[in-house]
Design brief:
Elements (H helix, E strand, L loop, with lengths): L4 E2 L9 H5 L11 H17 L6 E7 L2 H11 L6 E6 L2 H12 L3 E6 L8 H10 L3 E7 L1 E2 L4 E2 L2 H10 L3 E5 L11 H4 L3 E5 L10 E7 L3 H5 L10 H9 L9 H17 L1 H21 L15 E5 L6 H10 L2 E2 L1 E2 L8 E5 L6 H16 L2
Parallel strand pairs: 1-12, 3-4, 3-5, 5-8, 8-9
Antiparallel strand pairs: 2-10, 6-7, 9-10, 11-14, 13-14
Helix pairs in contact: 2-10, 11-13
Bound molecules: pyridoxal-5'-phosphate.
Pyridoxal-5'-phosphate binds next to α3.
Length: 361
């Protein structure tokens, strides 16, 4: 049942059959029924992204931040460093994770409204021989900015570094050729482009680096990738998983495979184009230049005289949930995401409502 149309960047509106899957009978996660369900999810997620031969998956019961924490702390050996391409709030979080675990971090800060300066990134990779991992956010959810995944991938290959991509808000919505780019660890959550319910996140991991990760001294019991992966390959989970979440994920993955990642990406992209045409007509101004726009989030300045709360409440009354800016951008922008089960017709209705609210201010 869809009470509101969610224009926040996940959780997204999901299909009825995904929601209904939550009502399947209670099962114990140590029984063969769960093992079969879990193995199906493992197989299907790799199939959906076409990476069965090259990558494996490790699931975590937890939001996107859980898998991100696991990826960071499982892949940097003692005395080695992580280089973070930092041009937004989610990149900031990667730095914060590393710091909290005492992992050496080179935090390369760039403007939040632009892509990173590649020559600065390369200079650092050349100078600092102790970097073992480069981490970047694929799509900065805080601004809607798409980062140069391929270019950073080339640098990682050139300087032989592991490449971690936080693709939590980009997977499905953006083009990503895992093998061409050389993605070693790709972090995702199931409640965005995969269109399932929140509570499960995952790391897609290049099979060729697993042995390297096994040599890193574990920093955490729950978030250790090699031990979780070892169990999960046998259909087991070390800890209690979100059983019902996997029922929903199983169906959501069927839907993703049926629609196809490319077609879903196209669906999101077309909706973003329709929305952006409407935003321009309404006289709204973008936070970042269109050349950096992702397919799924648009950050817009709040018009003069209109607070976020007023805009949010007026639109919610009409059935639409929009999203605020974060941190320093809280009172400056609002964000419109376009993932999940929303249609062009829904968005035409949304634009009409938005224009009506704006015309009253
Ligand atoms: C790019 C990115 N990374 C990490 C996260 C953290 O995910 P969660 O809030 O599900 O923990 C998010 C959440 O939206 C995100 O957009």
């Amino acid at each position: 049942m869809r009470k509101y149309i969610l224009l926040n960047p996940g959780p997204v509106n999901i299909k009825e059959n995904v929601r209904r899957a939550l009502l399947t009978p209670d099962i114990c996660h140590r029984e063969p029924e769960f093992e079969r369900l879990f193995m199906r999810c493992r197989k299907k997620i790799l199939k959906a992204f076409g990476i069965t031969a090259s990558h494996d998956v490790v699931f975590f019961t937890g939001s996107g931040a859980a898998a991100l924490e696991a990826a960071v702390i499982s892949s940097v050996p003692q005395k080695k460093k992580i280089l973070v391409i930092n041009n937004g709030i989610y990149a900031e979080r990667i730095t914060e994770i590393a710091k909290r675990y005492g992992i050496g971090v080179i935090d390369l800060k760039f403007k939040i409204t632009e892509g990173p300066d590649l020559s600065i990134a390369e200079g650092n990779l050349k100078r600092n021989k102790d970097i073992s991992l480069v981490a970047m956010v694929h799509h900065e959810t805080s601004t809607g900015l798409l980062n140069p995944v391929d270019e950073i991938g080339k640098l990682c290959k050139k300087y032989k570094k592991l490449y971690l991509l936080d693709s939590v808000s980009a997977l499905v919505g953006e083009e990503l050729d895992f093998n061409e780019v050389g993605i070693d660890l790709c972090v995702g959550a199931v409640n965005k482009g995969i269109e399932s319910i929140p509570g499960i996140s995952f790391v897609l991991i290049n099979k060729g680096i697993v042995a390297r990760l096994e040599r890193v001294r574990p920093r955490s019991l729950y978030f250790d990738i090699p031990s979780n992966l070892k169990a999960q390959k046998k259909g087991e989970t070390i800890f209690t998983p979100a059983v019902q979440g996997f029922y929903a994920l199983d169906i959501a993955l069927n839907e993703l495979i049926k629609e196809g990642v490319q077609k879903r990406l196209r669906r999101y992209k077309d909706i973003a184009a329709l929305l952006r045409k409407g935003f321009v007509e309404a006289g709204l101004k973008y936070l970042i230049a269109p050349e950096y726009h992702s397919n799924t989030i648009t950050a817009l300045y709040l018009p003069k005289g209109l607070t976020y709360q007023k805009l949010h409440d007026a639109l919610k009354k009409k059935g639409f949930v929009i999203y605020a800016g974060q941190s320093k951008l809280r009172d400056v922008i609002f964000r419109i995401a376009n993932m999940g089960q929303i249609t062009q017709k829904d968005m035409l209705r949304f634009l009409k409502s938005l224009k009506a609210v704006l015309s009253r201010t």
